[in-house]
Every structure is written in C-alpha cells, then in structure tokens.
Amino acid sequence: MELSLRDGENCRYLSFSGRLDASTSPEAEQALRGKLDDCRALLVDLEGLSYISSAGLRVLLVIAKRMQSNRGKLVLCRLRPDVKTIFELSGLTSIFNICDDLQSAENAIC
Amino acid sequence: MDYHYQLVNNLDSFKTFTLKLSEESWYKSLDCGRRYTLDLVLEELLSNTIKYGYDDALPHTIAITFAVGSDHLKLTVADDGHEFDPRGDYGADVTKPLQERKVGGVGLLLVKSLSRGMDYRRESGRNILEIVI
Q1: Which of A55, A61, A89 lies nearest to residue B113, judging by beta carbons?
Q2: Is the separation of the CB atoms in B107 and A53 below 8 Å?
Q3: What residues of chain A lie within 8 A of the CB of B11, using their CB?
Q4: HSE value, Cβ hemisphere, 13 Å, CA-based, for B2
Q5: Is B103 in contact with A59 (CB distance < 8 Å)?
Q6: Which CATH number fits domain B2-132: 2.60.260.20, 3.30.565.10, 3.30.230.10, 3.20.20.60?
Q7: pLDDT digits (tens, 9 = 90+) for B57-87
Q8: Cα–Cα nearest to B63, from B108, B129, B133, B11
Q9: Residues A36/A66, Cβ–Cβ less than 8 Å
C-alpha cells in the first residue's frame, strides 16, 4: 500500500494504491495521524486501490469522521468495480460522496 | 481437488499464509472477482479468530482446506477458539448515519454478503466453518 497527500489549489488530495487491508491499515492510519486536523476539503482518489477490506474501510471511516468534525468537505473518486462493491455492501455509498472521475470530484468539492 | 494449509493464530503467520497462497497455481487460475472474494473472506474470518478467538497467549493451529471445483470453491476453516457461529447477527447496522456509525463491525457482514453458502458446526471442541464462494 502506498498513499500520497498533497495540497492543491482548492483542496487537499489523498490517494491510495495497492491493498488497504488488516496488514497495511495501521501504517495508513499512522501516516495520516494529525495530517488532516486543519483540512477543510479533501479529495480521496482510489484509482490505484486494488483491494479493500473492513480494516481499510475503517481507515476511510476515521477520515470521514475527522472531516465531519472539521466541518469540511470530503469526496471520493475513481473506485474500481470490486472496491465499489465492498462500499455498497457496507452501506458506505450513502455516507460518502463518491464520483466516477477526477473532474467530477473536483467540481463537487469546490 | 483439495488443498490443505495450516497457520497459527498470529498476524505474521496469516501474512505468510496469504503470501504462499498467492503463489499457488490453483489460486492464480481463479478469476479476479473470485480471488478478491477469497482474499476478503479469509482476511475477515482469520483476523477475527486471531484477535478474538482465544483467551490465552499460546499458539493455536488453524486448519484451512480449499476444495476447488470448476464452478465453485469451498473453504473449510477449523479452529479450537471460542465457540463462534459467524452466521449470527453480529454485523454493523449499515443504515446508520456517519455520526452513529461504528468504525468496525462490517467484516462478517461482508463475508455473509459475498458467500454463496455458509455452514457451521462445533465438533470436538473445534469450530468448523464451511463457506462456498
């Protein structure tokens, strides 16, 4: 699993790639600790994410709660079909604002 | 064709097991969707057993058998942990809004949703769980 976090003009960009599972989620949580405290708009790009389990969903749910307490905006985009199925089965598509492509996500967050 | 594996109840052993699995020719021959489901079912079940299945710090063997057919895959997991039938209603309420949503608890729900069939029995002090995917 790799993640990158960078500041854009209108929002902060977070991307995950590889597998977000029980083995890699602790390092993702550790890498993000304190990094979103001041964030008011976060775009999470999951194009490179090939696998997510409940441990990975937990990372995203923690991010969502952080953004909610920041009163900030959060948009996810570019979920692969298998990953999107896991979101749907977990009922998370009703919690997250999910866009198909990057442009739609950028429009949604501005 | 049946394939048999064993691991002990810690996450390092689970990682070693999944690495070995990923190199097996029968595993590589599965289509991507079935591989994803298998990975997820194994992770959710075994991480649950490793975290919550035992009170002591002793090593316990978890035995896993895969029966691989042309149109189905049956997975049997046997462990001597606490009696636990995962078919029960332990899943998270996926209809709750974010502020009421717990950060965990969806693993077993995913296993149930992605399985075509689940059977459980307690036999000679062991949990025997059979899952068809």
Answers
A1: A89
A2: yes
A3: 22-23
A4: 7
A5: no
A6: 3.30.565.10
A7: 999 999 999 999 988 899 999 999 999 999 8
A8: B129
A9: yes
Contacts 24+ apart (CB under 8 A), B78-82: B78/B126, B78/B127, B78/B128, B78/B129, B79/B9, B79/B49, B79/B53, B79/B126, B79/B127, B80/B125, B80/B126, B80/B127, B81/B9, B81/B49, B81/B52, B81/B53, B81/B54, B81/B127, B82/B52, B82/B53, B82/B54, B82/B55
Q: Helix or strand or coil: residue B102?
A: coil
Fold exhibited by the domain A2-109? Transcription Regulator spoIIAA (3.30.750)
Phi-psi region of B31 (alpha: psi -120 to 50; beta: other; left: phi over 0): beta
Could you report the predicted ipTM of this complex, rounded to two decimals?
Answer: 0.91
Contact yes or no for B110 and A53 at CB 8 A: yes
- Domain boundaries along the sequence of chain B: 2-132
Torsion of CA A73, A92, B106, A59, to 10 degrees: -30
Please tell me the pTM assigned to this model.
0.92
A57 touches chain B (CB under 8 A): yes
C-alpha span between B4 and A93 (Å, rounded):
37
Kindly identify which residue of chain A lies nearest to residue B11, measuring between CA atoms. Answer: A23
Question: Tell me: the pLDDT tens digits for A48-85?
Answer: 999 999 999 999 999 999 999 999 999 999 999 999 99
